[in-house]
Amino acid sequence: MPEQTVLEVYRYLPDEETEPRFQSYEITYRDSWVVLDALDHIKTEIDPTLSFRWSCRMGVCGSCGMTVNGEPKLTCETFIRDYNTETIKIEPLAHFPVIRDLVINMQDFMEKLPTVSPWLITDEDKPLEAGEYLQTPAQMARYKRFSMCINCMLCYSACPVYGLNSLFTGPAALALAERYNLDSRDEGTQERSDVVTAHDGIWRCTYVGECTKVCPKDVDPAGAIQMLKLSYALDWAKSLVLPGRGR
Amino acid sequence: MSRELTHPLPRSWWLKRPPYFRFMMRELTSVAVFAYTPLLIWALWSAADAASFSVFYEFLRGPLSVWLHVVVLVLAVYHTGTWIALTPSVLVLWRNDEQVDPNLITGTTAMLFLSVSVGVVWLVLV
Prior knowledge:
By secondary structure, chain A is α+β, with helices and mostly antiparallel strands. Chain A contains nine helices and seven strands.
């Protein structure tokens, strides 16, 4: 590796400039640094005007998603040593409006999440004295993978369907819908169907599959969406043959 | 009030990253499958009488037809292969509370496809 690494960082200062630009920062290469460490070093030692989001530094909070050399990444777990290039290009997550530098507006995502009713829905609430809603480990295994989402939005950034049409409900929200549909304690599949099977829901997905590949938590949103397509299509077929039997 | 910047995807978005290009190829190869259907319709239509079938049979023996079949076969196999590879994401099966190995689902689907293909070839040739 070179002794020096150049970070080419997307800059946009809306109060001072009308167009974005790239600014190069030369830093000393350190084997243990992730991209977020390098950005932090730039902000504290070289240029305090640089803006970016971060919080936990351990791949849990999902705040530090950015585009690194063209790929959506969590910068807190993306090591500089893994890039065998002298220059690393850092941009904000694609498909979201840029507020400033590497900071994006996530409002659209935050508004979409609750539309799929991502909570347990039951036909009747049990009285408190009836105790917990119990579940076996095997029942939990059915949905656990889809419950690991940290809302980092890398999947939206990798999805060209969302990039072309931001009305698409999107990978993370739909994976969350399937997470609850698969939960043995939930009875809200039908209630979610209006949003999930709407014009801009699951049927917009063309299965590019990149949402799954970039997911830092192996959630597999692409798989979840295809499973939703299959289960709702089967329900529709069942309702034709046996009216009233669709779930 | 701060101005937010948006970067709409260009028409050439699918050329920007190799996975997007492969996705587009998967979708475009379906056109080859669709484009082959007129030939099948011609085959059915020509079966009505010996003279028509003779014209169709002569076309099949020609170099244009051979090249067409080779190209369509390659594109159709690529198209089928990409979808078979994606099957385990859609078909998540459980047996005794254990998830069935995705490789087993891919392998079984591929074997089914091969068996049906060999069966069709056998029906035509034998």
